[in-house]
TrEMBL record:
GO molecular function, one term: monooxygenase activity
Name of the top EC class for this enzyme: oxidoreductase
A Pfam entry, by short name: Bac_luciferase
UniProt entry keywords in alphabetical sequence: Flavoprotein, FMN, Monooxygenase, Oxidoreductase
Family designation: Belongs to the NtaA/SnaA/DszA monooxygenase family.
All residue ranges annotated as the Luciferase-like domain in the record: 24-391
Protein name: NtaA/DmoA family FMN-dependent monooxygenase
């Protein structure tokens, strides 16, 4: 069997509790130096791309900003354009919402980044239907939940038409005349669809990689179908071996009906890690990180999101509350909605009773844990084994510290992955598509 190469990327979260602000080693979430340090570290490790999240509205709980969840993130494409000047090969991907942008404008901004970076741009396509986020925009929460991916698919296809509307040799150079456009080399794009109606010519020629790489993160059935039809990379939440293999097989199997082959879509789950000189030290480091990420206030906030009740009077390190959830109430805004809150509440209570967990311990238990925990040698082995077993094509690492969260991984794990032949020794191409081995 052909050995699979491990693809690596780095993710800088936007608005959540992954990043630990209170750690003394944590730096600014806004200063350009933080972004530059993370990006340069990822490039030093030979990562395929650096990936910025986006938050269009600050999250609220009981009508107040939950300050432990707020990163104050600057606009992604502006930051990535600046990073293009301080990196040479690293792909630069940004999350940009397909619900509150327009195809022509966003296609032009992404094409600009692609040119400035020499063909290293990527777009993580996200959607939203909640009126809370929409209130920041002229149209408000106009989009029905069921229409999110329909609009996104039309958006992406139209953006591709705009990027492809210039012939490859549209721009020519002449010593006397300078740079000019060949007559008839720029096609007019006319589109009449349910969500968009445009007619005109695109203002930028094709970039060195032709068009930006499309990334997608939805996990619903319609999200998986959208990925199979339109995406180049899937940012998956399924990092475990068994669930990863199931997700991988499901999405790859959908590609054939769109005339695509398995290698044309890379599945890269989000992954966290905790290292130690011994397995016991790594496990202790992982436990410390999780307690930092789930502060007492954050633990109460997570439970209130499910319970629909003010639980601020409860001790987060005390027993699980006896009060039943109020399923008619929703105290949080701007977060991903929790489906089947009654079922989630029942499972959480049962788990807390079975393991005798406090509120904080329960939230730590149910909100995930480090994907890879161990010595550098064992983490390198785990990552490689996941990819060779068909659970992923690689991983998008999510560090818990800014800006130095990737340093240990690049210094201690990447060399071991290179020794195993799992990752390349250095960049062999210049564009993001070349890094990802996409056609």
């Amino acid at each position: 069997m052909t050995r699979r190469r491990v693809h690596l990327a780095a993710h800088f979260p936007g608005v959540n509790n992954t990043t630990v602000w209170a750690d003394p080693r944590s730096g600014s979430q806004i200063a350009f130096s933080s972004f530059a340090h993370l990006a340069r570290t990822a490039e030093r490790g030979g990562f395929d791309f650096f990936f910025l999240a986006e938050g269009l509205r600050l999250r609220e709980l009981k009508g107040r900003i939950h300050d432990l969840d707020v990163a104050g993130r600057p606009e992604s494409l502006t930051v990535l354009s600046a990073l293009a000047a301080v990196t040479d090969r690293l792909g630069l991907a940004g999350t940009v919402n397909a619900t509150f942008n327009e195809p022509y404008e966003l296609a032009r901004r992404l094409a600009t980044l692609d040119h400035l970076s020499g063909g290293r741009a990527g777009w993580n396509v996200v959607t939203t239907s909640d009126a809370f986020t929409g209130a920041n925009f002229r149209r408000g929460g106009f989009l029905d939940h069921a229409d999110r991916y329909e609009r996104a698919a039309e958006f992406v296809r139209l953006a591709r038409r705009l990027w492809d509307s210039w012939e490859p040799d549209a721009v020519a150079a002449d010593r006397e005349a300078g740079v000019f456009v060949r007559p008839g080399s720029i096609g007019e794009v006319e589109h009449r669809g349910r969500h968009f109606s445009i007619r005109g010519r695109f203002t930028l020629p094709r970039s060195p990689q032709g068009r930006p790489v499309i990334i997608q993160a939805g996990d619903s059935d319609e999200g998986r179908e959208f990925a199979a039809a339109e995406a180049d990379v899937v940012f998956s939440r399924h990092g475990g071996l068994a669930e990863g293999k199931a997700f991988y097989a499901d999405v790859k199997a959908r590609l054939a009906r769109y005339g695509r082959k398995p290698h044309q879509l890379k599945i890269m789950p989000a992954a966290t890690y905790a290292l130690g000189d011994t397995e016991a030290e790594a496990a202790e480091n992982a436990a410390v990180i999780r307690r930092q990420q789930v502060s007492p206030q954050t633990a109460i906030a997570f439970l209130e999101q499910v319970w629909g009740r003010d639980l601020s009077g409860h001790d987060p390190d005390g027993p699980f509350p006896a009060v039943e959830p109020d399923l008619s109430s929703d105290l949080s805004q701007g977060r991903v909605a929790i489906k089947d809150r009654a079922g989630v509440a029942a499972r959480w209570r049962a788990l807390a009773e079975e393991k005798k967990l406090s509120i904080r311990e329960l939230v730590i238990e149910v909100t995930g844990r480090q994907t890879f925990v161990g010595t550098p040698q064992s983490v390198a082995r785990q990552i490689d084994e996941h990819v060779q077993a068909g659970a992923a094509d690689g991983f998008i690492l999510v560090p818990h510290l800014t800006p130095g969260g990737l340093d240990d991984f690049v210094d201690r794990v990447v060399p071991l992955l290179r020794e195993r032949g799992a990752v390349r020794a250095g960049y062999t191409g210049t564009t993001l598509r070349e890094h990802l081995e996409l056609e």
